[in-house]
Amino acid sequence: MNAEIRPIKTAAETTLSTAFASAKGRLPGLAALRESEFKRFETAGLPHRRVEEWKYTDLRALMRDAKPLAAPPGADAKVRAKDAGAALAAVEGRRIVLVDGAFVPELSDFAGLEGGLTIRSMAEALAAGDAAVAERLGRIVPTDNVAVALNTAFMGDGVVIEVAAGAALTRPLHLVFFNSGGAPASVFTRSLAVIGKGARAMLIESHEGTPGSDYQVNTALEIEVGDEAHVDHIKITGEGAGSLHVSSLMAAVGAHARFNEFLFTTGAAVVRNQMFIHFKGEGTVAGIRGATLLNGRQHADTTLVADHTAGACISREVFKTVLDGESRGVFQGKIIVQSHAQKTDAKMAALALLLSEEAEADSKPELEIFADDVQCGHGATTGALDDDLLFYLHARGIPPKEAEALMIQAFVGEAIEGIEHAGLRDTLLEHVAAWLKTRR
Amino acid sequence: MPAVQETVDQVRRIDVDQYKYGFETLIESDKAPRGLNDDVIRFISAKKNEPQWMLDWRLEAYRRWQTMREPTWAKVHYPPIDYQDLYYYSAPKKKDGPKSLDEIDPEILETYRKLGIPLREQEVLLGVQRPAGDDADGEGQTNGKRVAVDAVFDSVSVATTFKEELGKAGVLFMPISEALQEHPELVKKYLGTVVPVTDNFFATLNSAVFSDGSFVYVPPGVRCPMELSTYFRINERNTGQFERTLIIADKGSYVSYLEGCTAPSRDENQLHAAVVELIALDDAEIKYSTIQNWYPGDREGKGGVYNFVTKRGDCRGARSKISWTQLETGSAITWKYPSCILRGDDSRGEFYSIAISNGHQQVDSGTKMLHLGKNTISRIISKGIAAGKSQNTYRGLVSAHRKAKNARNFTNCDSLLIGEKCGAHTVPYIEAKNSSAVIEHEATTSKISEDTLFYCMQRGLSQEEAVALVVNGFVKDVLQTLPMEFAVEAQKLISVSLEGSVG
Question: What is the pTM of this model?
């Protein structure tokens, strides 16, 4: 608020400008859009703490430099990618593999593709000037977000998934994003899922990388959920310890649909998960949940904008954050109810558990309400484990460590319970147990 | 659930075109030239016969202000303010300062009568003391309790009552300009220590041009014998009011302070940018209550006061307590965040707010509770009611510093919308930097449990009556934190039910 500071270009911004100038000739399709989006990024610069939406995640400070654009994956990287996503084997999903941001069909599973399902490379669709992609890209939920602009400018590959009206996928689609970490690199992926009227699909994204490798990910997914469709989207972020991960979800949900979103985050040095969810049809039921487990000096930011422009939708948001070490957990959630979205029922809870003296939790649950006949509310709490409950467990002969673990599992479990798929639910609970074992 | 008819009617009763205090007092005034520059600041300082350090302080603030930008983050929209088109100083013309109240311009006395300051308060203003128990005026709410009043008219304080009696207790209550003459050491020691000169755009502007306001000092161990009160009135056209209030409660003391504000109805917007600083030392308690009823503009949103206020309390000593209570019904734009810095160990901060907006009013108000000391406790209760085409935002920050072990906060904010053209927003910031801090924030749809309603209805009340009963009980709880003297005025503004609220 004091004197205006005209920021000078950071090293990362300069590198990005040079990278764009030299790469734009090679990037697939939509040259004009890329150019204008990059201009938008250049004008705004990397978001910093004076930009309200980035108040707690100052990319200008957190992103010291920009890594060179990732090279196409070599044979070695592809070999190592074979085991990626194995932790989710119990889900028995159809594996769609992307290595260093490039779609790798030979590692992906196309056996017995269900009727009405098509999966193709985003790079190819863009290069071919695919009309269905061009007309949707960036338009499903328009946003002026700078990270999205950067993604649009640099997007290399990704997948385009189409599920025809009425089709029901029998297996979840498991998008495996693997970062081989051979050399410092930055990866820009962009994917699009168009789920037709009344269709049923479950999309799982898992992002992982080689521990200790130095890379940056900017990934974006746009989902169009048709009327009466039922879509689950689960994103698991378990990137390598030295990485930076920025992800954007833009989802537009039709009428009388069911939409479930779940974010499970344990990885990357810096994570920003942002979601822009637009309820554009009446009578939709949505659950938007998340669990974040951090330690060391990790920083994770979950930012949600749920915009209700149609009435009679029900949305439930539950976000749980467990913070150990010197980690910092951020939650920003905004529920917007436009004046004609009467009878909206939206409830949001953001709970943070601090396990160490040095951890920090920041929450900003916002409501922006323009309709008078709605039920909206939010709750946010921050605190440590309850000593009385711990004592209760001790008194019954449960060792302190175990008692703590039990309580943390119960705390996170409340969000994970919201997942409909039993196999995935159990897998994530195992993830939590594994994370707890790494504590001290 | 939508608002019940009763609620709608009650809100209509206090709608913008019902503004009762919109009259103008025709009185000769003494003004500084229009606009703002070094000379105007020197003029104000000279008018007040201020010491050199004060003038330097103002000039430094002005220099800083010129490098600052107006904040834009609040959810309020207004056309750009031309700061050079305002009068920064306006005072009723007087003959050498009234020695007694008889010398005060009858026009001003008439103004305060029309403002409906309770009759008793007026007599207090006139220095008449009634025997306790005499309640002939029928107002019946003051019960012989006395209130010392400082009346601020545009840029200057016109009267301060009960100074002598307060003096006996050692309490200093006077216009800040007078305090600068009589107790410069106290002013110098505390001024700007809670809201620094460069705190924000409006506070810095205020630091440069503030003209008057109240100064209170309560010495150690003294419980202030009566309520202290300031009544602010903007009268002159195109005038900004920049008052500065400084309240210091020394160790173990207690003081309760009330503030009321009104302005005439005018087509153009008036600017009010005040700074209030509270300092509570060890074991001291300050209770600060506001009824803000500046002119809100007319039905089309024309005119009204721009209320950009910086209020902050510093619980500097251990076990100190600062409590803010505000009832916001006026102003075209409200930009106000009474805050507490909980610096002392075991200190407490409270914020109770009821903000009602109607017509084209825009309210962006809330609080900041900054927990720095150990075992600090804060509590925030905020109720917003938006009607007409108004926008009502709660914006608050609760932060627990790394060293604030066992900090505790509870926040509850509810809002209610009446009509489809208004908006209610909640923007809380919660920052916890240590694990022993427990912070809870809730914004609930309804505070009324089905069980309670059922209990009432079973006893023959209709649902609306039951709702009204429960809600009134709840609101009165908040209102109880207001001193008795303001309760009646507050009651009139607040007998509004809050059911069907959105968080």
Answer: 0.85
